[in-house]
Design brief:
two-stranded antiparallel sheet, about 300 residues, about 35% helix, 9 helices, 10 strands, alpha/beta, pyruvate-formate lyase- activating enzyme
């Protein structure tokens, strides 16, 4: 019988794909914004936003350390935007991780750009020095009209400012863009302005997923009249425009989520021409492209 982890979870629990081997440590529940019409992650009734009681979080860390202290190497701070907490509380949590889980080498969190407006670069440097390694930022788009239509609560500038702050503080940034989010009307603008955002900030990691709605599109369409999902060809055209406009020094790029028809992996700009070739081949000859079968895209 497996030992029980002494942490209270409220389902459903989410984490980035690259945190599959991490201990999920909830320090908040839900998302402090939770108005994005494309996001279904924290809409369950039991997922109303709240900060976890600090004493509970610290006790969970202590008990986890007693049972698994030498085994845990990575921790993901859940839920949707743990960095909404005051810097003082975050530093206390990171110090407890250092004390009770000394084998941990990486601590990460989702991050809403809006939550960094009240944090200085010096505060973020303190968090980095205390062990915060990676922030996952769902930029979704670099186009202000698209962001407004999906009720993201951010702009090109607010996202750029947050990413620059993180970079200046030495925290690794992993940025996500949503392929197909803008529908056909704003598709190419979405691609171009998203590339402009990434070029301006030069994140260490970049991912592009296809927007999807496992629970249905009604909520999303209510705020985005006339929107329709892009077909496979249109998704590839948008991806081609995005990749073509990127000018990066060294960014690890992944488009290999279950939602993606075409798996793309590389380092940009070193692998830009290879990736563009693969996308252009899929546009010109989709029947010959190594596409993921539809059944494998179940989300």
């Amino acid at each position: 019988m497996s030992p029980v982890i002494p942490i209270r979870y409220i389902e459903p629990v989410y984490r980035p794909p690259s945190e599959a081997q991490s201990l999920i440590l909830p320090i908040t529940d839900g998302c402090s914004w939770n108005h994005c019409t494309f996001c279904e992650m924290y809409t369950a009734p039991q997922k109303h936003f709240r900060a976890r009681d600090q004493a509970e979080v610290l006790e969970s860390i202590r008990c986890t350390g007693e049972r698994f202290g030498s085994e845990i190497r990575r921790i993901f701070l859940a839920d949707g935007d743990a960095l909404v907490l005051p810097t003082r509380r975050l530093l206390e949590i990171l110090e407890a991780i250092r004390t009770h889980l000394p084998a941990v080498r990486r601590v990460s969190s989702y991050c809403l750009p809006r939550n960094l407006r009240r944090k200085s670069v010096d505060e973020l440097r303190d968090l980095a020095a205390a062990g915060l390694s990676i922030a996952y930022v769902g930029a979704e788009s670099g186009d202000d009209e698209v962001l407004e239509r999906v009720n993201k609560g951010e702009t090109f500038e607010s996202t750029r400012e947050a990413l620059d702050k993180l970079g200046e503080a030495g925290i690794t940034r992993s940025v996500m863009i949503l392929n197909g989010l803008a529908g056909p009307e704003l598709s190419l603008r979405h691609a171009e302005n998203s590339a402009r955002l990434v070029n301006a900030t030069q994140p260490e990691y970049l991912a592009m997923l296809v927007v999807s709605f496992p629970l249905g599109e009604e909520r999303f369409r209510a705020g985005f009249p006339g929107w329709r999902p892009l077909n496979q060809h249109e998704l590839f055209v948008e991806m081609e425009r995005f990749l073509d406009r990127l000018e990066l020094k060294r960014t690890v790029f992944r488009s290999d989520h279950a939602s993606n028809w075409l798996v793309l992996k590389g380092t940009l700009n070193a692998d830009k021409q290879r990736l563009l070739h693969d996308v252009r081949q899929a546009i010109a000859h989709p029947d010959d492209a190594p596409l993921r079968p539809a059944w494998a895209r179940g989300l």
